[in-house]
Design brief:
This is Glutathione peroxidase. The structure is a single chain. The protein is of the alpha+beta class and 180 residues long. 32% of the residues lie in helices and 16% in strands. It is built from five helices and six strands. The strands form two sheets. It has a four-stranded mixed beta sheet with strand order 4-3-5-6, covered by helices on one side. Helix 1 links the parallel strand 3 and strand 4. The longest helix has 13 residues.
Length: 180
């Protein structure tokens, strides 16, 4: 299968085929409203405003699998994001990204780009320490490790990068800009 054969459900309960986004650069991110990485919504919105007219789409898929940091309903999550970050990019139904109830899209994404590490810096050290206490073998599986893991697909639907939440958002932006 390829990226465009998958679909997600929007907050209205409608199935959205990713084929809708064929020919666009797509950034797919699992988000949370109560996470230390939640301010990345601001960076995502700025990127969306800057590049949407050139072909960028961002798919926001809220997920409550990481320390219960997205406890609200889809409507409450949407209200939070628009009130605090003025988000305009499409927000999907809250969904799982790991486990037996994970969106099939996420199985595909993880198969295309596995976990490669958190990089350097204080946030990376904190993530490694936390995950080691939860799963000693976390480095060796492709599962999503935390909120705000981002996948970038080029205009042909190829998954070209996976960014962990600790990645510098300027690196994400630079890659997106290079694909537009």
């Amino acid at each position: 299968m390829n990226l465009y054969e998958y679909s997600v459900t929007n907050t209205a309960g409608e199935e959205v085929s990713l084929n809708t986004y064929a020919g666009k650069v797509l950034l797919i991110v699992n988000t949370a409203t109560g996470c230390g990485f939640t301010p990345q919504y601001q960076d995502l919105e700025e990127m969306y405003e800057q590049y949407h007219d050139r072909g960028l789409e961002i798919l926001d898929i809220p997920c409550n699998q990481f320390a219960g940091q997205t406890p609200g309903t889809d409507e409450e999550i949407h209200q939070f994001c628009t009130l605090h970050y003025n988000t305009q990019f499409p927000q999907m139904k809250k969904s799982d990204v790991n486990g037996e109830n994970a969106l099939p899209l996420y199985a595909y994404l993880k198969n295309q780009k596995g976990f490669e590490g958190f990089g350097k810096g204080a946030k990376a050290l904190a993530m490694r320490a936390m995950l080691k206490s939860i799963d000693k073998d976390y480095k060796n599986n492709p599962d999503i490790k935390w909120n705000f893991t981002k996948f970038v697909a080029d205009r042909n639907g190829s998954i070209v990068a996976r960014f962990e939440p600790t990645a510098d958002m300027q690196e994400v932006k630079a890659l997106v800009a290079s694909l537009l």
